[in-house]
Design a protein that fits this description.
The chain contains five helices and no strands. With 121 residues, it is mainly alpha-helical. α2 crosses α3 and α3 crosses α4.
């Protein structure tokens, strides 16, 4: 009986989530492999609430910027090993990582983001 109830709940959830998915817009793809430092610095600037007052555009830019930061965090932890002190995933750690990415990208606009991340230590 519990299995049948759980199965019914799961089926209802799946059915409702497909309805919600159909109503929402398709997420914009993020092309890590072709993003240059110049592109990324533009994304970071658009994600800064001091520079971007359009709340709808700001939210999208912040989501894109966070995707790059989260990807970089995962890459560095995978490459170097998980070290919560070195790569904390909290506000201070994210701010630090944005600074590292910014430092590595500044003046290297045509360089690919993925190549720059490899140089972060």
């Amino acid at each position: 009986m519990k299995i049948r109830t759980a199965a019914c709940c799961l089926l209802a959830f799946c059915a409702s989530s497909t309805v919600f998915a159909a109503e929402s817009k398709k997420p914009q793809a993020i092309h890590f492999e072709t993003t240059t430092c110049g592109n990324l610095l533009d994304i970071f600037a658009a994600a800064d609430p001091k520079l971007n007052k359009d709340t709808k555009m700001l939210k999208g830019a912040q989501d894109r910027a966070f995707a790059f930061v989260a990807w970089t965090h995962g890459y560095l932890n995978g490459r170097d090993g998980i070290d919560a002190k070195r790569y904390p995933f909290n506000q201070a750690g994210v701010t630090q990582l944005v600074g590292e990415i910014y430092k590595a990208c500044k003046g290297n606009d045509p360089k690919l983001f993925l190549d720059v991340v490899k140089e972060i230590h």
